[in-house]
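Input sequence (365 aa), recorded before submission:
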Amino acid sequence: MIKIIRNLQINKRIQSNILIRMVLSFIITIAINTSLSILFFHFGNATKLDWVFNFLAYLLTPMFFIIFVITFFTLTRRIVKDLIALEQGLQIISEGDLSYRVDVVRQDELGLVALNINRMAERLEQQIIKEREIEKSKMEMITGISHDLRTPLTSIIGYIELLRTESYQDKKEYTRFIQNTYNKALHLKKLLDDLFEYTRLNSADSRLNLERIDLSQLLNQLLFEFEPIAQENNVHLIKDIDKSPIITLIDSEKIARAIDNLLMNALKYSISPGSISIRITTDSEHCTIEIENKGTPLSQDQENRLFDRFYKVDHSRKSQGIQTGAGLGLSIARNIAELHKGTLTLKHTHDVFTFQLRLPFGEDC
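Predicted structure, C-alpha coordinate format:
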Protein backbone atom coordinates (compact mmCIF):
# COMPACT_ATOMS: atom_id res chain seq x y z
CA MET A 1 0.00 0.00 0.00
CA ILE A 2 2.82 2.42 0.88
CA LYS A 3 4.44 1.69 -2.48
CA ILE A 4 1.17 2.41 -4.31
CA ILE A 5 0.74 5.73 -2.48
CA ARG A 6 4.34 6.64 -3.27
CA ASN A 7 3.75 5.89 -6.97
CA LEU A 8 0.62 8.04 -6.93
CA GLN A 9 2.58 10.91 -5.39
CA ILE A 10 5.24 10.55 -8.06
CA ASN A 11 2.61 10.57 -10.80
CA LYS A 12 1.07 13.76 -9.40
CA ARG A 13 4.52 15.33 -9.25
CA ILE A 14 5.38 14.90 -12.91
CA GLN A 15 1.84 15.71 -13.99
CA SER A 16 1.99 18.86 -11.90
CA ASN A 17 5.33 19.80 -13.49
CA ILE A 18 3.91 19.41 -16.99
CA LEU A 19 0.71 21.27 -16.06
CA ILE A 20 2.68 24.12 -14.49
CA ARG A 21 4.83 24.45 -17.63
CA MET A 22 1.76 24.41 -19.80
CA VAL A 23 0.11 27.16 -17.73
CA LEU A 24 3.34 29.19 -17.73
CA SER A 25 3.62 28.76 -21.49
CA PHE A 26 0.02 29.93 -21.87
CA ILE A 27 0.57 33.00 -19.67
CA ILE A 28 3.86 33.89 -21.37
CA THR A 29 2.25 33.45 -24.79
CA ILE A 30 -0.68 35.73 -23.88
CA ALA A 31 1.72 38.34 -22.55
CA ILE A 32 3.96 38.25 -25.64
CA ASN A 33 1.00 38.10 -28.02
CA THR A 34 -0.69 41.05 -26.28
CA SER A 35 2.52 43.06 -26.33
CA LEU A 36 3.03 42.42 -30.04
CA SER A 37 -0.61 43.30 -30.78
CA ILE A 38 -0.29 46.60 -28.91
CA LEU A 39 2.97 47.29 -30.73
CA PHE A 40 1.39 46.65 -34.13
CA PHE A 41 -1.67 48.71 -33.13
CA HIS A 42 0.44 51.73 -32.17
CA PHE A 43 2.51 51.27 -35.34
CA GLY A 44 -0.67 51.32 -37.47
CA ASN A 45 -2.03 54.43 -35.75
CA ALA A 46 1.29 56.20 -36.11
CA THR A 47 1.70 55.38 -39.80
CA LYS A 48 -2.02 55.64 -40.73
CA LEU A 49 -1.65 52.38 -42.69
CA ASP A 50 -4.91 50.39 -42.80
CA TRP A 51 -3.21 47.23 -44.08
CA VAL A 52 -1.40 46.89 -40.75
CA PHE A 53 -4.75 46.37 -38.94
CA ASN A 54 -5.94 43.92 -41.59
CA PHE A 55 -2.64 41.98 -41.40
CA LEU A 56 -2.81 41.95 -37.59
CA ALA A 57 -6.22 40.28 -37.63
CA TYR A 58 -4.81 37.34 -39.60
CA LEU A 59 -1.53 37.25 -37.66
CA LEU A 60 -2.81 37.05 -34.08
CA THR A 61 -3.95 33.41 -34.03
CA PRO A 62 -0.92 31.83 -35.84
CA MET A 63 1.42 33.99 -33.78
CA PHE A 64 -0.26 32.81 -30.55
CA PHE A 65 0.25 29.12 -31.43
CA ILE A 66 3.83 29.63 -32.59
CA ILE A 67 4.79 31.49 -29.42
CA PHE A 68 3.01 28.90 -27.24
CA VAL A 69 4.81 25.97 -28.92
CA ILE A 70 8.22 27.63 -28.70
CA THR A 71 7.68 28.57 -25.05
CA PHE A 72 6.36 25.10 -24.08
CA PHE A 73 9.29 23.34 -25.76
CA THR A 74 11.72 25.69 -24.05
CA LEU A 75 10.23 25.03 -20.61
CA THR A 76 10.08 21.23 -21.13
CA ARG A 77 13.55 20.99 -22.70
CA ARG A 78 15.00 19.37 -19.54
CA ILE A 79 12.34 16.65 -19.53
CA VAL A 80 12.97 15.92 -23.22
CA LYS A 81 16.72 15.84 -22.59
CA ASP A 82 16.25 13.30 -19.78
CA LEU A 83 13.97 11.17 -21.99
CA ILE A 84 16.66 11.14 -24.68
CA ALA A 85 19.25 10.13 -22.04
CA LEU A 86 17.00 7.22 -20.98
CA GLU A 87 16.59 6.12 -24.59
CA GLN A 88 20.34 6.27 -25.20
CA GLY A 89 21.01 4.34 -21.98
CA LEU A 90 18.58 1.60 -22.98
CA GLN A 91 20.21 1.45 -26.41
CA ILE A 92 23.69 1.01 -24.88
CA ILE A 93 22.46 -1.68 -22.47
CA SER A 94 20.55 -3.51 -25.22
CA GLU A 95 23.79 -3.68 -27.24
CA GLY A 96 25.41 -5.69 -24.45
CA ASP A 97 27.15 -3.15 -22.21
CA LEU A 98 25.53 -4.22 -18.93
CA SER A 99 28.05 -2.23 -16.90
CA TYR A 100 26.53 1.05 -18.17
CA ARG A 101 24.34 2.96 -15.70
CA VAL A 102 21.87 5.74 -16.45
CA ASP A 103 22.30 8.89 -14.36
CA VAL A 104 19.47 9.26 -11.84
CA VAL A 105 19.00 13.04 -11.60
CA ARG A 106 15.22 13.32 -11.15
CA GLN A 107 12.79 12.53 -8.35
CA ASP A 108 9.74 11.79 -10.52
CA GLU A 109 8.71 8.92 -12.82
CA LEU A 110 11.69 9.49 -15.10
CA GLY A 111 14.03 9.12 -12.13
CA LEU A 112 12.17 5.94 -11.14
CA VAL A 113 12.48 4.61 -14.70
CA ALA A 114 16.23 5.37 -14.67
CA LEU A 115 16.57 3.59 -11.32
CA ASN A 116 14.70 0.52 -12.62
CA ILE A 117 16.82 0.46 -15.78
CA ASN A 118 19.95 0.41 -13.62
CA ARG A 119 18.50 -2.35 -11.44
CA MET A 120 17.59 -4.37 -14.52
CA ALA A 121 21.11 -3.99 -15.95
CA GLU A 122 22.67 -4.94 -12.61
CA ARG A 123 20.50 -8.06 -12.26
CA LEU A 124 21.20 -9.09 -15.84
CA GLU A 125 24.93 -8.60 -15.21
CA GLN A 126 24.75 -10.69 -12.02
CA GLN A 127 22.76 -13.37 -13.83
CA ILE A 128 25.34 -13.61 -16.61
CA ILE A 129 28.17 -13.79 -14.04
CA LYS A 130 26.25 -16.53 -12.20
CA GLU A 131 25.70 -18.47 -15.42
CA ARG A 132 29.40 -18.22 -16.25
CA GLU A 133 30.28 -19.49 -12.77
CA ILE A 134 27.84 -22.39 -13.19
CA GLU A 135 29.35 -23.22 -16.57
CA LYS A 136 32.85 -23.04 -15.08
CA SER A 137 31.70 -25.23 -12.20
CA LYS A 138 30.30 -27.79 -14.64
CA MET A 139 33.59 -27.91 -16.53
CA GLU A 140 35.52 -28.32 -13.27
CA MET A 141 33.14 -31.11 -12.27
CA ILE A 142 33.64 -32.92 -15.58
CA THR A 143 37.41 -32.52 -15.28
CA GLY A 144 37.37 -33.75 -11.68
CA ILE A 145 35.18 -36.74 -12.48
CA SER A 146 37.31 -37.68 -15.48
CA HIS A 147 40.51 -37.51 -13.46
CA ASP A 148 39.17 -39.44 -10.46
CA LEU A 149 37.53 -42.19 -12.51
CA ARG A 150 40.42 -42.62 -14.90
CA THR A 151 42.95 -43.73 -12.26
CA PRO A 152 41.12 -46.82 -10.87
CA LEU A 153 39.71 -47.66 -14.30
CA THR A 154 43.20 -47.66 -15.82
CA SER A 155 44.41 -49.95 -13.03
CA ILE A 156 41.48 -52.34 -13.56
CA ILE A 157 42.18 -52.50 -17.29
CA GLY A 158 45.87 -53.10 -16.58
CA TYR A 159 45.22 -56.00 -14.16
CA ILE A 160 42.61 -57.55 -16.48
CA GLU A 161 45.11 -57.38 -19.34
CA LEU A 162 47.72 -59.16 -17.20
CA LEU A 163 45.17 -61.83 -16.30
CA ARG A 164 43.97 -62.15 -19.90
CA THR A 165 47.47 -62.71 -21.22
CA GLU A 166 48.31 -64.93 -18.22
CA SER A 167 51.24 -62.66 -17.37
CA TYR A 168 51.65 -63.90 -13.80
CA GLN A 169 54.30 -66.16 -12.34
CA ASP A 170 52.32 -68.33 -9.94
CA LYS A 171 49.02 -68.78 -8.16
CA LYS A 172 49.99 -66.31 -5.44
CA GLU A 173 50.59 -63.52 -7.96
CA TYR A 174 47.37 -64.47 -9.76
CA THR A 175 45.43 -64.10 -6.49
CA ARG A 176 47.11 -60.76 -5.82
CA PHE A 177 46.09 -59.47 -9.27
CA ILE A 178 42.51 -60.60 -8.66
CA GLN A 179 42.41 -58.92 -5.25
CA ASN A 180 43.88 -55.68 -6.60
CA THR A 181 41.36 -55.65 -9.43
CA TYR A 182 38.54 -56.18 -6.94
CA ASN A 183 39.83 -53.38 -4.69
CA LYS A 184 40.07 -50.97 -7.63
CA ALA A 185 36.54 -51.91 -8.71
CA LEU A 186 35.27 -51.18 -5.19
CA HIS A 187 37.12 -47.87 -5.26
CA LEU A 188 35.52 -47.02 -8.60
CA LYS A 189 32.10 -47.90 -7.19
CA LYS A 190 32.74 -45.67 -4.17
CA LEU A 191 33.61 -42.74 -6.45
CA LEU A 192 30.46 -43.28 -8.50
CA ASP A 193 28.34 -43.60 -5.34
CA ASP A 194 29.75 -40.30 -4.03
CA LEU A 195 29.03 -38.59 -7.33
CA PHE A 196 25.50 -39.98 -7.45
CA GLU A 197 24.83 -38.98 -3.84
CA TYR A 198 26.16 -35.46 -4.40
CA THR A 199 24.02 -35.03 -7.53
CA ARG A 200 20.93 -36.35 -5.75
CA LEU A 201 21.43 -34.07 -2.73
CA ASN A 202 21.78 -31.01 -4.99
CA SER A 203 18.74 -31.80 -7.14
CA ALA A 204 15.61 -29.68 -6.73
CA ASP A 205 13.45 -32.68 -5.77
CA SER A 206 15.74 -33.93 -2.98
CA ARG A 207 13.58 -35.22 -0.10
CA LEU A 208 14.25 -36.45 3.42
CA ASN A 209 12.71 -39.60 4.87
CA LEU A 210 12.35 -38.23 8.40
CA GLU A 211 11.91 -40.63 11.31
CA ARG A 212 12.30 -40.43 15.08
CA ILE A 213 15.70 -42.02 15.66
CA ASP A 214 17.92 -42.53 18.70
CA LEU A 215 21.04 -40.71 17.52
CA SER A 216 23.19 -42.28 20.25
CA GLN A 217 22.27 -45.78 19.12
CA LEU A 218 22.87 -44.89 15.46
CA LEU A 219 26.30 -43.44 16.25
CA ASN A 220 27.30 -46.45 18.39
CA GLN A 221 26.34 -48.80 15.57
CA LEU A 222 28.40 -46.81 13.05
CA LEU A 223 31.41 -46.78 15.38
CA PHE A 224 31.10 -50.55 15.94
CA GLU A 225 31.38 -51.07 12.16
CA PHE A 226 34.13 -48.46 11.82
CA GLU A 227 36.39 -49.64 14.66
CA PRO A 228 38.07 -52.57 12.76
CA ILE A 229 39.06 -50.18 9.94
CA ALA A 230 40.51 -47.76 12.49
CA GLN A 231 42.49 -50.54 14.19
CA GLU A 232 43.96 -51.62 10.84
CA ASN A 233 45.32 -48.08 10.45
CA ASN A 234 46.65 -47.95 14.04
CA VAL A 235 44.04 -45.41 15.15
CA HIS A 236 42.22 -45.69 18.49
CA LEU A 237 38.61 -44.52 18.97
CA ILE A 238 37.74 -42.50 22.08
CA LYS A 239 33.97 -42.43 22.61
CA ASP A 240 32.13 -40.02 24.87
CA ILE A 241 28.50 -40.91 24.16
CA ASP A 242 25.78 -40.79 26.78
CA LYS A 243 23.91 -44.07 27.20
CA SER A 244 20.56 -42.28 27.51
CA PRO A 245 18.60 -42.03 24.23
CA ILE A 246 18.84 -38.84 22.14
CA ILE A 247 15.68 -38.87 20.02
CA THR A 248 15.89 -36.76 16.86
CA LEU A 249 13.77 -36.36 13.73
CA ILE A 250 16.23 -37.23 10.95
CA ASP A 251 16.77 -39.22 7.79
CA SER A 252 18.84 -42.00 9.36
CA GLU A 253 20.33 -43.18 6.05
CA LYS A 254 21.60 -39.74 5.09
CA ILE A 255 22.85 -38.86 8.58
CA ALA A 256 24.68 -42.20 8.70
CA ARG A 257 26.30 -41.28 5.37
CA ALA A 258 27.37 -37.89 6.72
CA ILE A 259 28.85 -39.38 9.92
CA ASP A 260 30.64 -42.10 7.96
CA ASN A 261 32.16 -39.47 5.66
CA LEU A 262 33.39 -37.51 8.68
CA LEU A 263 34.88 -40.62 10.29
CA MET A 264 36.65 -41.67 7.07
CA ASN A 265 37.98 -38.12 6.64
CA ALA A 266 39.33 -38.16 10.21
CA LEU A 267 40.92 -41.57 9.60
CA LYS A 268 42.60 -40.47 6.35
CA TYR A 269 44.20 -37.42 7.89
CA SER A 270 44.95 -38.64 11.43
CA ILE A 271 48.52 -39.03 12.62
CA SER A 272 49.29 -42.74 12.92
CA PRO A 273 49.47 -44.06 15.57
CA GLY A 274 46.81 -41.73 16.88
CA SER A 275 43.24 -41.41 18.07
CA ILE A 276 39.84 -40.08 17.01
CA SER A 277 37.50 -38.64 19.64
CA ILE A 278 33.72 -38.82 19.14
CA ARG A 279 31.36 -36.85 21.39
CA ILE A 280 27.67 -35.95 21.55
CA THR A 281 26.43 -32.83 23.33
CA THR A 282 22.89 -31.47 23.55
CA ASP A 283 21.08 -28.26 24.43
CA SER A 284 17.40 -27.35 24.49
CA GLU A 285 17.00 -27.32 20.68
CA HIS A 286 20.03 -29.03 19.12
CA CYS A 287 22.33 -32.00 19.41
CA THR A 288 25.94 -31.82 18.22
CA ILE A 289 28.22 -34.64 17.13
CA GLU A 290 31.91 -33.75 17.40
CA ILE A 291 34.62 -35.79 15.64
CA GLU A 292 38.14 -34.75 16.58
CA ASN A 293 41.55 -35.91 15.41
CA LYS A 294 45.14 -34.73 15.21
CA GLY A 295 46.80 -34.27 11.85
CA THR A 296 49.08 -32.09 9.78
CA PRO A 297 48.00 -28.41 10.09
CA LEU A 298 46.22 -26.81 7.14
CA SER A 299 46.92 -23.46 5.56
CA GLN A 300 44.17 -20.84 5.68
CA ASP A 301 43.42 -21.39 1.99
CA GLN A 302 43.13 -25.15 2.48
CA GLU A 303 40.81 -24.66 5.46
CA ASN A 304 38.58 -22.26 3.51
CA ARG A 305 38.25 -24.71 0.61
CA LEU A 306 37.87 -27.88 2.66
CA PHE A 307 34.11 -28.18 2.03
CA ASP A 308 34.37 -27.38 -1.70
CA ARG A 309 33.39 -30.22 -3.99
CA PHE A 310 36.27 -32.12 -5.62
CA TYR A 311 38.77 -30.34 -3.37
CA LYS A 312 41.44 -32.62 -1.95
CA VAL A 313 44.39 -31.58 0.15
CA ASP A 314 47.94 -32.61 -0.66
CA HIS A 315 48.28 -36.38 -1.15
CA SER A 316 51.23 -36.52 1.22
CA ARG A 317 48.86 -35.97 4.12
CA LYS A 318 46.77 -39.04 3.35
CA SER A 319 47.05 -42.38 5.07
CA GLN A 320 48.82 -44.87 2.88
CA GLY A 321 46.34 -47.68 3.49
CA ILE A 322 43.23 -45.75 2.50
CA GLN A 323 42.24 -45.08 -1.09
CA THR A 324 41.66 -41.47 -2.09
CA GLY A 325 38.11 -40.35 -2.79
CA ALA A 326 36.64 -37.87 -5.23
CA GLY A 327 36.83 -34.95 -2.81
CA LEU A 328 33.06 -35.02 -2.25
CA GLY A 329 32.82 -36.53 1.26
CA LEU A 330 32.78 -33.31 3.29
CA SER A 331 30.64 -31.52 0.70
CA ILE A 332 28.08 -34.34 0.87
CA ALA A 333 28.13 -34.26 4.68
CA ARG A 334 27.52 -30.50 4.76
CA ASN A 335 24.67 -30.79 2.22
CA ILE A 336 23.03 -33.46 4.37
CA ALA A 337 23.36 -31.25 7.47
CA GLU A 338 21.83 -28.28 5.65
CA LEU A 339 18.95 -30.42 4.34
CA HIS A 340 18.17 -31.15 8.00
CA LYS A 341 18.38 -27.38 8.72
CA GLY A 342 21.57 -28.01 10.63
CA THR A 343 25.23 -27.06 10.16
CA LEU A 344 28.60 -28.71 9.67
CA THR A 345 31.61 -26.64 10.73
CA LEU A 346 35.31 -27.13 11.38
CA LYS A 347 37.36 -25.86 14.31
CA HIS A 348 41.03 -26.00 13.39
CA THR A 349 43.61 -25.15 16.03
CA HIS A 350 47.22 -26.02 15.18
CA ASP A 351 47.13 -29.79 14.57
CA VAL A 352 43.68 -30.47 16.12
CA PHE A 353 40.67 -30.78 13.81
CA THR A 354 37.15 -30.80 15.27
CA PHE A 355 34.19 -31.25 12.92
CA GLN A 356 30.87 -30.29 14.51
CA LEU A 357 27.66 -31.73 13.03
CA ARG A 358 24.85 -29.72 14.63
CA LEU A 359 21.27 -30.96 14.12
CA PRO A 360 17.93 -29.69 15.41
CA PHE A 361 15.81 -32.14 17.39
CA GLY A 362 12.86 -31.53 15.09
CA GLU A 363 9.17 -31.28 15.94
CA ASP A 364 7.49 -33.62 18.40
CA CYS A 365 10.79 -35.16 19.58
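Checked by second reader. The two ends are 42 Å apart (CA to CA).
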